[in-house]
Design goal:
- The protein is mainly α.
- The chain has one domain.
- 72% of the residues lie in helices and 7% in strands.
- Strands 1-2 form a two-stranded antiparallel sheet.
- Helix 1 runs antiparallel to helix 2.
- It comes from Cellulomonas phragmiteti.
């Protein structure tokens, strides 16, 4: 097998999972995040929430091969913002993830997608102070 063969196969699997994810769950969930982002940006004061929502929407569209890590520079304002976010949009987006995960668990093919859906719930509840990075970069930098 040529050098880098395992990495190539890993990318193929991630791409396949992302395409299946996009069709079964990602498009619908991303629309929810985009809607939340538009509402937050329209309210002016909540523009940082809108930006975070758009960032997560792109992650929700294509999640395999990326992960969420804590930003080391996040401070108390992120915590305060996350409390507000949970009340305004986070709980509804988390409910969307749960209701999308349930039917995915019904089929064998959907089980990894359902698990991925449940893993997105924490970032849907507390998006501020988080960063979306490629999984290989997260492993190298954070050991996971």
């Amino acid at each position: 097998m040529p050098a880098g063969g395992a990495g190539w196969q890993s990318r193929r699997v991630k791409t396949l999972l992302n395409v299946i994810w996009l069709v079964l769950a990602g498009a619908w969930l991303a629309l929810g995040y985009v809607l939340a982002g538009i509402v937050c940006c329209a309210l002016i004061v909540t523009i940082p929430f809108g930006i975070a929502s758009f960032r997560i929407a792109s992650y929700v569209l294509w999640p395999f091969g990326r992960t969420v890590v804590e930003k080391p520079t996040a401070g108390a304002m992120s915590t305060i913002g996350n409390v507000i976010w949970v009340l305004v949009a986070g709980i509804w987006l988390a409910i969307g993830h749960v209701t999308t995960a349930i039917p995915l668990f019904v089929s064998i093919i959907g089980i990894p997608l359902g698990i991925a859906n449940l893993k997105l719930i924490p970032v849907s509840l507390v998006p501020l102070g988080k960063e979306i990075v490629p999984t290989d970069r997260a492993f190298a930098a954070y050991g996971r």
